[in-house]
Design brief:
Elements lengths: L2 H12 L3 H10 L6 H8 L12 H16 L15 H11 L4 H10 L6 H7 L13 H15 L6
Helix pairs in contact: 1-8, 2-4, 4-5, 6-8
């Protein structure tokens, strides 16, 4: 999944409008325009499509944490220069204040089964011998579970 696909899926899952997206980016310390957001959300084959860089998506995710949980005391975390699915997954876990059982339940909502041990491997340090890279399907199904739980009109 690309950064743009992740941003599109999160916007849809939480039903964020442009104003909310601008506010979330501002929480993370980046001023963006409606046009920028629109270009990031366009499909990959659109002529006006613009790829969102890792630091910009990290700022959005940091802003989402502030939006959902409030600003923490002291200095705010610096956005990562290089993102991977494990970092995105961890930031979403923090933003939604989820425990392992909550994440497993969200994955089950999207008919995806994962053991608690497999899940904990995603949140380990990369140099840990039980670390496992989070694949597209895990992140995609997690965001789908979030959508099914948190989006009002997802009872299709």
């Amino acid at each position: 999944m690309t950064n743009n696909q992740t941003l599109r899926r999160l916007r849809y899952a939480f039903d964020f409008n442009d104003s909310t997206m601008i506010k979330i980016f501002a929480h993370g310390g980046l001023e963006v325009s409606r046009a920028q957001i629109s270009d990031w959300l366009k499909k990959d084959d659109d002529a006006a499509f613009v790829a969102i860089a890792d630091p910009e998506l990290a700022i959005f995710l940091n802003g989402l944490i502030i939006e959902k949980r409030g600003r923490k005391e002291g200095p705010q975390p610096e956005p990562e220069q290089k993102l991977n699915h494990n970092i995105v997954f961890r930031k979403l876990k923090i933003a939604l204040d989820l425990k392992d059982e909550d994440i497993l339940a969200l994955l089950l909502l999207s008919d995806f089964r994962l053991s608690k041990h497999e899940l904990s491997a995603f949140f380990r340090r990369p140099d840990h011998h039980h670390f496992r890279a989070c694949q597209d399907q895990v992140l995609r199904n997690f965001i789908k579970g979030v959508q099914l739980k948190f989006r009002q009109d997802s009872e299709d």
